[in-house]
Specification:
Elements lengths: L1 H68 L3 H10 L4 H33 L5 H13 L5 H6 L3 H26 L3 H23 L9 H10 L1 H15 L1 H8 L2 H33 L5 H36 L7 H25 L5 H26 L1 H26 L18
Length: about 425
C-alpha cells in the first residue's frame, strides 16, 4: 500500500512538472507574437506589396542564415546542457558554442545580405537586407541553452523583452515615417543587445572566456552531422518564400508570404511545446523514458491536427483581416501549409527526443537530404505550374517524407534508447 502511494505521488509530481513546463514554454509564443501581430498589419499596409514581399523575403533568408550559424548547437546543444548539472560546466558549454558560431554567423550574414539584394524588389532592398541580417544574428541566440536548463525567464529576458521593446518603438516610427526600414534596424539592434545582455548577466563578461582553437575545431567537427541536419532541413523549410518570389509575380509572392507568416507563427506553438517536452523526456534515463516519449508524440500530434484545421478554416479570413484583402492567402495554399504544419509537429518529438539524443544524427541527415531534394524540386516544378499553392505543396511533400522516415527510424530503435552523445569537452591545451 505504501509503495502504491509513493508511486502515485511520484506520478502526480511528474504530471505537475510537465504541466508547469507546458504552461511556461507555451506562454512564450504568445508573448513573442503579441507585439509583432500589432506591427505586422502596419508593415503590410505601410510597405505595400513590395515592402511586404521584402519583409517576408528577408525574414526567410535570415531564418536560414541563423540555422547555418548555429553550427549544430541548436540541435545537440539542448540535450548536452540538459544532461550537465554543474553551472560552471554549462557556462563552458555555452562558451564553446559561442566561439564555434560567431565566425560562421558573420560569414552567412554577409551572404544573406547579398541574396536579399538580388531577390528583393529594387525599391525595398534595404528592408530585405536588414531583416536578413537580423535573422542571421539569431544564430547567436540562447533559446536552445535556456531550454536545456529549463529556464523560461532566460528566454523572456534575453530574447522576448529586447524584441518586444524594439517592436514597441518601431510602431510609432512606422506610422510616422511610413518606412519599414526603421523596424528592421531596431530589430537588428535588439537581437545584438539580447546576446550582450545574456553574456553580462550569465557569463559575467562581455564575451565568454576563450576556449581555444582546438576545442572550437573539435566541436565543429563532432557536430557536423547535426549541423548538416540543421542546414539541409532549414533549406527546404525556409525556401518557399524565396522560391515563390523567384517563380511568381510580386503579388502572388506577397499573398504566399501572408500564408507563410501565419504558418510560421503557428509553428511557434510547436516549438514551445517541443521545448517543454524535450527537457521532461530527457531528464529521465530509465523505463520512464518510453512512457514520456509516447506522451510527447501524442501531444504534438494533437497540436499538429489543431494547426492543420486552424489554417484550413481560419487562414484566409485571418490573413485578410491582418494584412489586407489584397494580401490574403489563398485556400489551396493554406491546405498544403496545414499538411506541412501537421508533419512538422508530429516529427518534432521523434527527431528531438528519440533520434538525435540516441546518436542517430547520420540517418536523420540522410532523411533530411532526401526531403530537401524532393521538396525543393517539388517547390520549383509545382510552383511554376500552380503558383503559390504549388510552392506550399512542395513544402508539404518534404515535411511528410521527413515524418514518415523518422517514424520508421524511431520504431526501429525504440522509444527507450539511451543517449548516444557526450557533453564533455576534449582535453586540449589552450593555444
Amino acid at each position: 500500500m505504501l509503495r502504491f502511494e509513493k508511486r502515485r505521488v511520484k506520478y502526480a509530481r511528474s504530471v505537475a512538472n510537465l504541466i508547469a513546463r507546458l504552461v511556461g514554454f507555451s506562454s512564450l509564443p504568445f508573448l513573442s507574437a503579441l507585439l509583432p501581430f500589432v506591427a505586422l498589419p502596419i508593415v503590410a499596409r505601410v510597405g505595400g506589396v513590395d515592402g511586404w514581399t521584402s519583409f517576408n523575403l528577408g525574414q526567410a533568408i535570415g531564418a536560414y542564415a541563423a540555422a547555418v550559424g548555429y553550427v549544430g548547437w541548436n540541435v545537440m546543444g539542448t540535450p548536452m546542457v540538459a544532461t550537465t548539472r554543474d553551472r560552471g560546466e554549462r557556462t563552458a558549454l555555452y562558451a564553446r558554442s559561442f566561439y564555434a558560431r560567431i565566425g560562421i554567423v558573420g560569414a552567412v550574414g554577409a551572404g544573406a545580405a547579398v541574396i536579399a539584394v538580388v531577390l528583393a524588389p529594387e525599391s525595398t532592398r534595404a528592408v530585405a537586407v536588414l531583416f536578413a541580417l537580423t535573422g542571421a544574428v539569431g544564430g547567436l541566440g540562447i533559446a536552445w541553452f535556456a531550454v536545456g536548463v529549463s529556464s523560461v525567464s532566460m528566454i523572456v529576458w534575453f530574447e522576448i523583452v529586447p524584441r518586444a521593446a524594439a517592436t514597441a518603438l518601431a510602431i510609432p516610427l512606422l506610422l510616422w515615417t511610413g518606412d519599414v526600414f526603421w523596424y528592421g534596424l531596431l530589430m537588428l539592434a535588439a537581437s545584438i543587445a539580447g546576446v550582450i545582455a545574456f553574456h553580462l548577466v550569465y557569463c559575467r563578461a562581455l564575451v565568454p572566456r576563450w576556449v581555444g582553437w582546438q576545442t572550437v575545431r573539435h566541436d565543429i567537427s563532432r557536430l557536423r552531422a547535426a549541423w548538416g541536419v540543421e542546414v539541409v532541413g532549414n533549406l527546404y523549410a525556409n525556401a518557399p518564400v524565396p522560391v515563390a518570389t523567384a517563380t511568381s509575380s510580386v503579388t502572388h509572392a506577397a499573398t504566399y508570404g501572408s500564408g507563410d507568416r501565419l504558418y510560421r507563427y503557428g509553428l511557434l506553438g510547436v516549438v514551445a511545446v517541443g521545448n517543454a517536452l524535450q527537457g521532461w523526456v530527457l531528464e529521465v534515463d530509465d523505463a520512464r523514458r518510453r512512457v514520456r516519449n509516447r506522451a510527447a508524440i501524442i501531444i504534438l500530434a494533437v497540436v499538429g491536427v489543431i494547426g492543420f484545421f486552424s489554417l484550413l478554416v481560419a487562414g484566409e479570413p485571418v490573413t485578410a483581416l491582418l494584412f489586407g484583402a489584397e494580401l490574403a492567402a489563398e485556400p489551396l495554399t493554406l491546405l498544403w501549409l496545414g499538411v506541412a504544419f501537421f508533419a512538422v509537429a508530429a516529427s518534432t518529438p521523434l527527431i528531438r527526443n528519440v533520434l538525435m539524443p540516441a546518436g542517430r544524427q547520420r540517418p536523420v541527415f540522410i532523411v533530411t537530404v532526401v526531403s530537401a531534394v524532393s521538396g525543393l524540386a517539388g517547390m520549383i516544378l509545382l510552383g511554376d505550374a500552380m503558383g503559390a499553392a504549388g510552392v506550399a505543396a512542395g513544402l508539404a511533400i518534404s515535411e511528410m517524407i521527413t515524418l514518415l522516415a523518422c517514424a520508421w527510424l524511431s520504431w526501429r530503435i525504440g522509444l527507450s534508447a539511451r543517449p548516444g552523445f557526450s557533453a564533455a569537452a576534449p582535453v586540449v591545451k589552450d593555444l
